[in-house]
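Hi R.,

Quick one: here's the CRP-like cAMP-binding protein sequence you asked about.
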Amino acid sequence: MEAKPQQAQRAAAGGRSLLDLDADLGALLSDERREAARRELHVRVTTFPVGEWDGTRLADADPTHLGLLVVEGVLAREVILGDTVSTELLGPGDIFRPWHIEGPPELLPVAVRWNALSTLRLGLIDRRAAAAIGRYPEVSAVIVDRLSERAQRLSITQAISQLNRVDRRLQALFWHLAERWGRVARDGIAVPLVLSHRLIGELVGARRPTVSTALAELARDGQLLRRDDGTWLLTGEPVDVPAGAAAEVIRQRRRLMPTPAEPATAAVAIAEPAGERMGELQASLHAARAITLQHRRDFDTIRAETSALRERTLQLRSRRADHLERLHDAAAARGPSSN
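And here's the predicted structure, written out as tokens:
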């Protein structure tokens, strides 16, 4: 009876509760399992100051460690290719791995550097924590969803960088950032990120002088303003999504890779005695029925669990929809700026 308190004490001594650091990781857990996960899942947390963060020190980390969780702050990941820098912003809830199983790319040499844009707190989800998370597939599902969301944000940023005017890129970028970091303010949507013109250029694929000119034009039009503290304020309308014929710029390719011709094979009929064949069919039928009944029971169990998870997922989507609706309502209430 004393093993569990001692185990909890040892875990607490080894770090902070993962769900205390990031409660949303337990969004799909029932109340009982959430409390158990809060006691069992612990990570070590380290704080880093503003400035360059040397992620290369972790290049030889144990590849079975799951990754690093951004607990607090904003981290810029800069990929350097030739004389061009492309930047990705990581914030609270993001999970990333500065180490790779296969190492860096060899055919296309790139360099990666990291910069903490604010005081940074990272939690190490090591192999011990990863093994404990394995007992909670609900938490694993949220982690995979976080990785999928990060990939989605990267694809959106890539699409933004291909817009044909820099001012359109900047508008799209800041509304994209507002969806995650935006806060409703008295005179618009506040984006509480201190981003220099150079860094913004690295986010949208443009040079700093071009970015400065486009930002000045957006400020004059009352679309985007830089506040006294260096953060940003969206005062215009969200970027419209093209509809109808305008949305169909390039048709999706029907086939990306050629399909090799499959060699034709002739079916060979093998004659078998009718009695033996009938006995085999009956035995196979009985076995199939037994398997079907077991699958049906398993399916009923999975369906019940899925229904509970679906209900929690709908609640999360509703909270996200309410947040986005507040942002849109604030933008609509602000209306076109008279500046």
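The chain has two domains: 3-135, 161-239+291-339.

Cheers,
M.
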